[in-house]
Specification:
This protein has 118 residues and is of the alpha+beta class. The chain has one domain. 59% of the residues lie in helices and 19% in strands. It has three helices and two strands, in the order αβααβ. α2 runs antiparallel to α3. The two termini are 65 Å apart.
């Protein structure tokens, strides 16, 4: 093989490789010509939610209310009926007090929210 044929072959292979590289790179760009890319604006937002109750049946409030109500009922009348009535009223009041406390207990978390850019 003569020198000019060898130079021509190397030159031709170089041009073909460069053309293939450019064609392959242009195929990687999937967006159509002139298309705009939609963007979003994201931000962190604090969200406050009601915390899940650990004592869903409010047993602690009911028991404590019954004990306190029974003690007060015994001091008021010193009879069994006043003790029982005080315990019953105390149980209801304790249950409702715990319910109110659980409803007012909140947990704050952080969420990422995104809105479309204009």
């Amino acid at each position: 093989m003569n020198k000019s044929a060898l130079v021509g072959t190397v030159f031709g292979v170089t041009i073909a490789t460069a053309a293939a590289g450019i064609a392959g790179y242009s195929m990687l760009d999937n967006s159509p010509s002139g298309a705009t890319v939609a963007t979003e604006n994201c931000y962190q937002a604090e969200v406050e939610e009601t915390a899940e109750a650990r004592d869903k049946r409010r047993i602690a409030g009911t028991v404590i209310g019954a004990l306190v109500g029974g003690a007060v009922g015994k001091d008021v009348g010193d009879r069994d009926i006043t003790t029982v009535a005080g315990a019953a009223v105390g149980a209801v009041v304790g249950n409702q007090a715990q319910k109110k406390l659980q409803e007012n207990r909140t947990v704050t978390t952080t969420e990422t929210r995104c809105v479309p850019a204009e």
